[in-house]
Design a protein that fits this description.
Blueprint lengths: L6 H18 L3 H7 L5 H8 L18 H14 L1 H21 L2 H13 L4 E4 L15 E5 L2 E12 L6 E7 L9 E7 L5 E5 L11 E12 L3 E2 L5 H37 L1 E2 L2 E2 L4 H29 L5 H26 L10 H9 L8 H13 L5
Parallel strand pairs: 1-4
Antiparallel strand pairs: 2-3, 3-7, 4-5, 5-8, 6-7, 9-10
Bound molecules: flavin-adenine dinucleotide.
Flavin-adenine dinucleotide binds next to strand 1, strand 3 and helix 11.
């Protein structure tokens, strides 16, 4: 693994950094208070090609490698996790799944719009009663002539009320486990689909998280993604790469914590000089710095494995587990450096901590990552 970025990768990193500094950072606190980022940000992400990274150009994507994807995701996570999450889901979980598993018609219908930011995707796996144990989801899709009729409820769906298309997972077979699950692309304006935004989140407040209720939602049989019964494979392959994206977002949070803590420690004076000169403050800062570096290297390793065609599922779980826990530690340490001001939302540390906290929960909790890593190493499933 070569840790030096190519000129193209360095350019895309700089492009993303400049964009985030100009278009995201100045608004992030206000969007957090308003519980909504400005929707115009989606088209801007599309115009720069960020929403098409790694998607083939023939379908409207911008190509590029997984390092570039990680670099852009990190920069967006550094600026505002709410914006980063829009990309991680619409591109990372939905567009990439369509590119990998979709029919030619599905690719031509959805990818150009998703990559341009003219449409937003959401990923409907979790249900009110089914989270970690996703293989036992209960949403049903019943065959009716040339169509399927979907009934069920999906919970905590990122981009839920913004989405133009939902990649939804539903049970088509009699089998109670993963073999009975199929995937469908459902246009969000299909009759019978209602969406309710969930308010009061601890963090990621700028992002639209929703409950989606499917009542007799009728879609043509051609809306199925991949063969019948392969839906769980679609979901798991999306999440395996998705964990790299979450990890990259966490590296961004951790880097933002480091930047903020160093800056504040140099400005804030106590006992007659900047607190940066106190050894215990330097300990907080160096702990953050070590976490940033370790999380970044683990995340880059996943991109490296993907690019070289090596297995990457366990590496992805390792990166997601470490980076998400590290982001929470870093934000907590940064808040400590800020003292009482860290507790006030005029300063960045509180939002970083609130946004970081969900990273150990979604796309597989830390406990689930440990079980995945343990299963890969021992060959024994201990779920
Ligand atoms: P549970 O599965 O009920 O877990 C509760 C606790 O039990 C956790 O600590 C868990 O680690 C532990 N636990 C469960 N099983 C085991 C076990 N076998 N061994 C040890 N411990 C265990 N889902 C989507 O489908 N699409 C989205 O876009 C999406 N976005 C989200 C956005 C936000 C802001 C949030 C909060 C969630 C989102 N989710 C989404 C859902 C998320 O993926 C789930 O919340 C997550 O998978 C955990 O499921 P759960 O909340 O039902 O917790």
């Amino acid at each position: 693994m070569d840790l030096a970025l190519s000129p193209e990768q360095a350019a895309v990193q700089q492009l993303a950094r400049d964009f985030a500094e100009r278009e995201v950072v100045p608004h992030a606190a206000a969007w957090d208070r308003a519980e909504s980022v400005d929707r115009g940000i989606v088209k801007k992400l599309g115009a720069l090609g960020f929403l098409g990274l790694t998607v083939p150009e023939e379908y409207g994507g911008s190509g590029g490698d997984h390092f570039s994807y990680v670099l852009v995701t990190e920069e967006l996570g550094r600026a505002d996790s709410a914006v980063r999450g829009i990309l991680s889901v619409s591109l990372g979980l939905v567009a990439k799944s369509i590119a990998a598993w979709g029919s030619e018609e599905q690719k031509r219908t959805w990818l150009p719009r998703l990559c341009a930011g003219e449409a937003v995707g959401s990923f409907g796996l979790t249900e009110p009663g089914v989270g970690s144990d996703a293989a036992h989801l209960t949403t049903r899709a019943r065959r009716d002539g040339d169509a399927y009729v979907i009934d069920g409820t999906k919970m905590f769906i990122t981009n839920g009320t913004w989405a133009d298309v939902v990649l939804v997972f539903a049970r088509t077979g009699a089998d109670p486990g993963h073999k009975g699950v199929s995937a469908f692309l459902v246009p969000a304006d299909t009759p019978g689909l209602t969406r309710r935004e969930i308010h009061g989140k601890l963090g990621l407040r700028g992002q639209a998280t929703a409950e989606l209720v499917f009542e007799g939602v009728r879609v043509p049989a051609s809306a199925m993604v991949a063969p019948e019964g392969k839906g769980f494979s679609v979901a798991m392959s999306a999440l395996t790469k998705g964990r790299m994206s979450v990890a990259a977002g966490c590296v961004g949070i951790a880097q933002a914590c480091l930047d903020a803590a160093v800056r504040y420690a140099g400005e804030r004076e106590q006992f007659g000089s900047p607190i940066a000169g106190r050894q215990l403050v330097q300990e907080l800062i160096s702990d953050i710095a070590v976490d940033v570096s370790a999380a970044r290297l683990l995340t880059w390793r996943v991109a490296d494995h993907i690019e070289r065609g090596l297995p990457f599922a366990t590496e992805s779980s390792v990166a997601k587990l470490f980076a998400s826990e590290a982001a929470v530690r870093c934000a907590n340490n940064a808040l400590q450096v800020f003292g009482g001001y860290g507790y006030i939302d005029e300063y960045p540390a509180g939002k970083l901590l609130r946004d970081a906290r969900v990273m150990t929960l979604y796309e597989g909790t830390s406990q689930i990552q440990k079980l995945l890593i343990g299963r890969a190493l021992t060959g024994v499933a201990a779920f």
